[in-house]
TrEMBL record:
Nucleotide-binding keyword on record: no
Protein known as: DNA-binding helix-turn-helix domain-containing transcriptional regulator protein RpiR
Entry-linked SUPFAM superfamilies: Homeodomain-like, SIS domain
GO annotation terms (biological process): carbohydrate derivative metabolic process
Source organism: Psychromonas ingrahamii (strain DSM 17664 / CCUG 51855 / 37)
Domain HTH rpiR-type: 1-77
Entry keyword DNA-binding: yes
Gene field: rpiR
One annotated GO molecular function: carbohydrate derivative binding
InterPro entries hit by this protein: Homeodomain-like_sf, HTH_RpiR, RpiR-like, RpiR-like_SIS, SIS_dom, SIS_dom_sf, WH-like_DNA-bd_sf
Amino acid sequence: MKTLELIQKNLGSFSKSERKVAEVIIASPEVAIHSSIATLAKMAEVSEPTVNRFCRRLDTKGFPDFKLLLAQSLVVGTPYVNRHVNQDDGPEAYNAKIFESTIACLDSAKNMIDTAVIKRAVEVLTRADKIAFFGLGASSAVAHDALNKFIRFNIPVSCFDDIVMQKMSCINSRKGDVIVLISHTGRTKALVEVAQLARENNAFVIALTPNHSPLAEKSNLVLSASVPEDTDIYMPMASRIVQMVIIDVLATGFTLRRGPKFIEHLKRIKTEIKDSRFDKVDLNED
């Protein structure tokens, strides 16, 4: 089993401090490879002996040996496609691998995400005067999906995947507005600049991004459920699905927090758009 997969598999068995190290590595394995033990310890907010202990828990000789094995585990599968898929895989193999790896990432994200942070994010969203969702590249699809969910909620909501529009929206923001930034890496320079601009205009910034990333540092609240999918090398797949599920979690929390009367509002929306569809066909009819 590859080192990164081994860390994910054993996430629940680590001590609290060891788990901090694991989460930093899962969020940014490439950064970990090029970091000193002191830097990694600082990123995880633990001691250097804790990092060494974590490495030995994975049956390595120490931090240098661990970094070598981690580096070897990253370049696998088919570059620019998927780390789990081999070049000679047929339909049966790559179908199974994509589904299985995505399910594993969702399970890992479920165990990793901090429900206290989810609760805080839902509180902020339900009190917002208006909400905007921003994403670039693959994350723009997630931002549009968020718009599709939150536009039902009787609150001004927008979505932009153009950096100029994002900046103009931030300039027009104010206290009470919430900007949700979505980035798998947290290293996109333009989004980091947008977060800073939003903060300067007193908007509250929520980021779906790894902890300790440049984007996280510029945000008020970070929702981190990192997926070991290096999108510098591979096509965004499981990371995008995890982001969408987090959006579903926030939308569900938003709905429940608004109470039973709000359910009636959602019911009215469903009723109004019912005529836009053909009636369901009973497949059991002769």
